[in-house]
Amino acid sequence: MTKLLIRGGRVIDPANQLEGTADVLIEEGRIAKVGPKLSAAGAEILEADGALVFPGFVDLHVHLRSPGREEKETVASGTRAAAKGGFTTVCAMANTDPPADSRPVIDYLLAEAQRTAVVHVLPIGAVTKGLAGESLAEIGELKAAGVVALSDDGHSIMNARLMRHALEYATMFDLPIIGHEEDTTLSAGGVMHEGRISVKQGVQGIPSTAETVMVARDILLAEATHSRLHLAHVSARETVELVRAAKRRGVAVTAEVTPHHLALTDEALQGYEPNFKMSPPLRSAEDQAALREGLRDGTIDCVATDHAPHTQAEKEVELETAPFGVIGLETALAVLLKTLVEPGLLTLTQLATVLSWRPAQILGLPCGTLSPGAVADVTIVDPARVWTVTAGAFASKSSNSPFLGWSLRGQVMEVVVAGRRVVQGGRVIGTNGKGDA
Amino acid sequence: MTREWTRKDLLGLEELSSEELLLLLEQARAFKEVSLRPIKKVPALRGRTVVLFFLEPSTRTRTSFELAAKRLSADILSIQAGSSSLSKGETLQDTIRNIEAMKVDIVVIRHAMSGAPRLVARTAVSSIVNAGDGSHEHPTQGLVDLYTIWEKKERIAGLNVTIVGDIAHSRVARSNLWGLTKLGAHVTLCGPPTLMPAGIEQFGVKVTYNLREAMRDADILMLLRLQLERQTQNLLPSIREYAKLFGIDREKLAWGKPDLLIMHPGPVNRGIELAPEVADGPQSLIYDQVTNGVAVRMAVLYLVSGGRQIRKARPAPSPTQPVGV
Amino acid sequence: MSKPQILDADAIRRAITRIAHEIVEHHRGTEQLALVGIRTRGAVLAERLAQAIAKIDGVEVPVGALDITLYRDDLTAIGPNPIVHQTEIPFELTDQRIVLVDDVLYTGRTVRAALDALIDYGRPGVIQLAVLVDRGHRELPIRPDYVGKNVPTAPEEVVLVRLAETDGTDEVILGVAEEVKPHDA
């Protein structure tokens, strides 16, 4: 196999507490060495002078829409979008059609990924059969099939007793449950955050309590059952406080936040624009401030995009009728640079931690680091490159992004997956990064 | 002071300036006079087509618009819920585009979802007039209420106006809130907490759950229609209790000033928000509201059709010739 | 730069007095006579004419004010729809002898609109037209019955009538098109 030398970049590797100019040598698909002025005879040279060199980003929360909704996204297009955004590993949520609640569906996904994916795809299995929240899925089977976590995301597990048993059962397989925390009796009919803007617009709101009530419940259940809970897409300041207190008590709870919740508030919905409609909704400025602070101080462990593609026809309707969800893989890095790193809220090392290292740790994955021996997943960013978010330029099949028209600085230029160059000069090349020529 | 109406659409009162609101009221007065003539017709919108696109059932608003358009000599096309292709799965945008392909001038739209008229106005070439969207706004009703008060009291600024009822779900309450506060009235909202939007005080209004307190200094009392479904949604224990706490009968009327005036956008749930003898009594302005409805809507149609012409017209301002005499 | 003055305050007063005499003479008195002024300045002139007639004949003829905005034939061509003012005709028009009053007669379109409006109010027996200034350039077959002064003009010129009640002073001057705001009838 090839040797690849990434030369002269600013390497940021939180796992090894490294931030500085260094070369990265890749051999046989793995990190061989990281250090200053490395020599490598016969290696392909990738000049990274002026660039930032990160361990490939890991997204714990992506909807690839396959099987079943390939008009919105496929494994091929979704992973191309991931690569373009610098994500070398994505975890595919289970709310596909059919849902990933049995072995054959997981097998299908992995086969599709083997055939067409340009980055690593890790499957997430369903907690309950059919995501109906009524009976447990065959979690043992799912584990054997290769799932890295369990989640009914997209749906809520309203029955507390069922959630309790799910948490208990999952500990047997050391699988965390990723909780989509939403009390649907409180959120029913709602379309945006319940607050000043929803009152002005005459639109039914989703109160913060729809999330916090469930977060409190599930933290207590996880605590009582000594199990691992990961909170998906947190949005409310009270959630951050609950997590902070729980961590202090030693509960095994972790949390993720999306770039759009960090960058936007409910003010974005003043035009009734469905590209700002997602669940949980964009909340108030106070909530946003708490989320940013929570990410900064580690209460919130990582960033996950909750990339949720929908076709243009589906989104181009009245706010109430449009489906919830926005894409995010291709804009995540630049949006975080703009809203958190540039204003000095987050350092580059913290950025790498929340995008690569922590997510990998949460799921116990052997990535998110540039330690020698690790799989060579590397993301190289040009921090000065300016670009505009345009609908036609997405690698994703869908373009339902809340950042359309934004001018951003910082773009992923090169991505290496398992030692193979998958993104070059900002463009996704090849159809399969898995080793076959 | 030159005051001009330059908007192509009327989507809500929240975005209007107080000058624009006053202009609308003054024009409504001029148009009321037309309705008092023996020949209640003027040729101002002759040859124009007005489409009444009502996706939520309505009798009074629709007929009011219809009469307004006819008195301006416009041609009318009326499309109603259920009969439209929307029930066959066509999107709202497509339906409007199809209507516009027939070269119409004004589309008056009533829709169950907040923001639908704005969605349509973004791409529409014709003028869009909001006849009520979800719980967001009902601007012409707000204008009717403002005009009725203005005509009767000769001012709006400084008046104490109390609105009672299901504020949370009421587009009429919202439109009135924007219009009244912009023109300087003191607004009090009254109703049960479950029907009161959280944080509404931020918009410069007082909130109270006590009807007697709300009525004490009021010059105008505006009652809102109670949707009987609210009981099944667990927002109210029963309609009977609502009527007991918030319904206005002759006894409760005495809690207010002797010159207190009663308004209701209609239709009235007799015996719930209002007792019949109060609705028909001397302090009621309800029938004035209906009469004024046509005049107000004539003013709206007249002004937006002019606003549309500006959008189409020449870009560079040129010295204006004096209009031929 | 002062504009040429066509009529000063005295000249206006004399013109109104003369027209009042002509009206009374033509109609052999004031029976069934009524004046309707076209807003805004025509209405002012109608009031003045009524006062002049009262001095001559001792009778107060009814006066109405007509807003013709809604009857204009150019609503599609100009910018924002012009502000509509109120029409006040507090008397029965049918079978009456109506004298329409306006300040300047030019293309005749305003008078055409006024005729349409009047007929929507009733069926006058006779309609005549009195104007303070006739500046020519008719575009419709309309002729005045009573004229204060004939003023030949070029198309780019404009006749500005100022009256004390609306403009603070009485005078008629000749101006140039660019300086003028659209005539607010």
What name goes with the CATH superfamily of chain A? Metal-dependent hydrolases
What CATH first level of chain A would be assigned? Alpha Beta
How many angstroms separate the termini of chain B?
23 Å
CATH fold title of chain A: TIM Barrel
Percent range for helical residues of chain B? 25-40%
Query: Which shape of chain B, going by the Cα principal axes?
Result: globular
| CATH T-level fold name of the largest domain in chain B | Rossmann fold
Distance between the termini of chain A: 11 Å
**Superfamily (CATH H level) name of the largest domain in chain B:** Aspartate/ornithine carbamoyltransferase
For the largest interface in this structure, which chains are involved and how many residues does each contribute?
B-C, 36 and 42 residues
CATH class of the largest domain in chain B: Alpha Beta
Task: Give helix and strand order of chain B, one letter per element, not per position.
Answer: HEHEHEHEHEHEEHEHHEHH
Mean pLDDT of chain A: 95
Sequence of strands across the biggest β-sheet of chain B: 7-6-5-8-9
Which structural class fits the helix and strand makeup of chain A? alpha/beta
Percentage of residues in helical conformation of chain A:
25-40%
User: How many helices of chain B in DSSP terms?
Assistant: 11
Write the layout of secondary structure elements.
The complex is a heterotrimer of chains A (437), B (325) and C (185).
Chain A: E1 3-13, E2 18-27, E3 30-35, E4 44-47, E5 52-55, E6 57-62, H1 75-84, E7 87-92, H2 103-116, E8 120-125, H3 139-145, E9 149-151, H4 160-171, E10 177-179, H5 184-187, E11 192-193, H6 196-201, E12 205-206, H7 209-225, E13 229-231, H8 237-249, E14 253-257, H9 259-263, H10 285-296, E15 302-303, H11 312-315, H12 332-341, H13 348-362, E16 378-388, E17 407-417, E18 420-424, E19 427-428
Parallel strand pairs in A: 1-4, 1-5, 6-7, 7-8, 8-9, 9-10, 10-13, 11-12, 13-14, 14-15
Antiparallel strand pairs in A: 1-2, 2-3, 5-16, 16-17, 17-18, 18-19
Helix pairs in contact in A: 2-3, 4-7, 7-8, 8-10
Chain B: H1 18-35, E1 49-54, H2 60-71, E2 75-80, H3 92-100, E3 106-111, H4 116-123, E4 127-133, H5 139-153, E5 160-164, H6 171-182, E6 186-190, E7 206-208, H7 211-215, E8 220-223, H8 239-246, H9 250-253, E9 261-263, H10 276-279, H11 286-312
Parallel strand pairs in B: 1-2, 1-3, 3-4, 5-6, 5-8, 6-7, 8-9
Helix pairs in contact in B: 1-5, 1-11, 2-11, 5-6, 5-11
Chain C: E1 5-7, H1 9-26, E2 33-38, H2 41-57, E3 63-66, E4 97-105, H3 109-121, E5 126-134, E6 146-150, E7 157-162, H4 164-167, E8 171-176
Parallel strand pairs in C: 2-3, 2-4, 4-5, 5-6
Antiparallel strand pairs in C: 1-8, 7-8
Helix pairs in contact in C: 1-2
